[in-house]
Amino acid sequence: MIVRSMSDVDGTDADIKTETWRSRRIVLAKDKVGFSFHETVLYAGTETSMWYANHIELVHCIEGEAEVTNDETGETHLITPGTLYLLNGHEHHTVRPKTDFRVLCVFNPPVTGREVHDENGVYPLLTEETPSP
């Protein structure tokens, strides 16, 4: 059994901060459970374009409001608490938070916690044995 609190992650290598978001990665590949689990806050008034070419991501909003655009189709969705979206087709997408937007995210395959978006918005496919980018 694994038991962790957010305070266990705060300030560690699994607490990733950028200009547009903060992601606390709570369950990682090293836990060997087949997925990773994160709490992420995307900041109000920012815009983040992403493309998980190597991962499937489920995003469940628990606080705030954001517009999510499928950059491939132009389709836009308003995401509010209790709404989720699933990037099951590796969609290029852009998130535009209207307020601070707190979400719970599940990744498959699991991330190691060292990933950051590259110039295309992609997380590299890392394993525990892969050196950091």
Care to describe what's here?
With 133 residues, this protein is mainly beta. The protein contains 1 helix and 10 strands, in the order H-E-E-E-E-E-E-E-E-E-E. A 6-stranded antiparallel beta sheet has the order 1-2-3-10-5-8. A 4-stranded antiparallel beta sheet has the order 4-9-6-7, with no helix packed on it. The N and C termini lie far apart (31 Å). The mean pLDDT is 90.
Task: Briefly summarize what is shown.
With 133 residues, this protein is mainly beta. The chain is 3% helix and 42% strand.
N-to-C series of helices and strands: HEEEEEEEEEE
Question: What amount of the residues lies in strands?
Answer: 35-45%
Instruction: Give the overall shape, derived from the CA principal axes.
Output: globular
**Total strand count, please?**
10
Total count of helical runs of at least 4 residues = 1
Which sequence of strands runs across the widest sheet? 1-2-3-10-5-8
**Structural class designation:** mainly beta
Query: Termini separation (Å)?
Result: 31 Å
Given as residue ranges, the uncertain stretches (5+ residues, pLDDT < 50) are none
Share of helix among residues?
under 10%
Biggest sheet record: 6 strands, antiparallel
Q: Give the integer mean of the pLDDT values.
A: 90
The rounded Rg comes to: 14 Å
Function: Catalyzes the circularization of gamma-N-acetyl-alpha,gamma-diaminobutyric acid (ADABA) to ectoine (1,4,5,6-tetrahydro-2-methyl-4-pyrimidine carboxylic acid), which is an excellent osmoprotectant.
Pathway: Amine and polyamine biosynthesis; ectoine biosynthesis; L-ectoine from L-aspartate 4-semialdehyde: step 3/3
Catalytic activity: (2S)-4-acetamido-2-aminobutanoate = L-ectoine + H2O
Protein name: L-ectoine synthase
